[in-house]
Amino acid sequence: MFKNSRRLPILTKRRRKKPGSAPGTVEHIGEQRLDDIQLTIHDYDEDHLDEIHIEDVEESRPYLENPSKTWIKVCGLHDIEKLKSIWSYFDLHPLVQEDIVNTTQRPKAEAYENNMYFVVKMLSWSGEKQQIESEQVSLVLSNTYVLSFQETDREFFQPILDRLKFGNVRIRKNGVDYLMYALIDAIVDHYFSVLEQIGDRIEQLEEQLLDDPDQEVLHDIHALRRDLIFFRKSVWPLRDVLNATIRDETSFIDDNTKLFLRDVYDHMVQIIDNIENYRDMVLSMHDMYMSHVSNKMNEVMKVLTIIATIFIPLTFIAGIYGMNFDPAASPYNMPELQWYWGYPVAMASMAVIAIIMIFYFRRKGWF
Fold first, then answer.
1. 10-292, superfamily in CATH?
2. Could you report the per-residue pLDDT of 96-116, keeping only the tens digit for each?
3. Among 34, 135, 184, 310, which residue has the fewest nearby CB atoms (within 10 Å)?
4. Under 8 Å CB-to-CB from 299, ≥6 apart: which residues?
5. How far apart are CA 294 and CA 281, in angstroms?
6. Distance between CA atoms of 102 and 81, rounded to whole angstroms?
């Protein structure tokens, strides 16, 4: 049985900034998942790759001044003061700053004078909790660098790092816009992994429904339905974001990279179709469970009705001969009450009537 059958719905976990706050108000909204903010620089071109952990954003200056491509990865969103030093160094718009630390943002893309800003939801499957885990990833794309902000230090971009280690690969030859595409593509690939896990859960629930489902199965069906709603809400806007990015004219993304983004868009269409199919399957499982409960109740009612029907004539006979009338005082003589064999004959009659009714019900196929 799934462990998440009684967990709180993901959709109820919401936090917002205070009503009336000015636009651009920087306030971390979400859970603190790291003790310290971590900064890592990946500087590369066709000939070299450097990976450096830094403590202060000023240490990135030599890499940003070189013609190479630079990816600065920021892990942790709770230390506002340290983040402000990063934002100030790269001259990020106040609205971008606000969105980076607000982890309840929906996927979107916004173009500014010096950069483009993307919000993407990183989804993964927790085997321990048996549920979807979400993390907000913010990407800032400039002409020479990419900034990525994530809530944890989880290495879900490890496949990108592995590809950067090889010299003669496309990601080392192309610009930072291709790196941005690769990061989004890696996130979308995780969506397929989540779909596989949800598909396995659906198969397990179907097997339980075909056996003898209990109340726990209904809890699991509702939990799976909540997961799919959350999944759909987290990824659906990304399809529109990719479509708009492909169609818009921008100096930060060249036409060659847009071809690859179109492939990611196709993947998103496929993912959304699968989510809708899974939602229909879950609704069908709910109907199947309710039909099973209804059929089971009908079986119980049929058995009880048959038993009651058998006892109706027996109760009639017992009622006739159970009346407290004195046969000597009554003008209507009931000779069976004084008959020596009256009791055994009455019991035998009851047994014969019950047997005849049971045989008749079986002939009719009622049980």
1. CorA soluble domain-like (3.30.460.20)
2. 999 999 998 999 999 998 999
3. 34
4. none
5. 20
6. 15
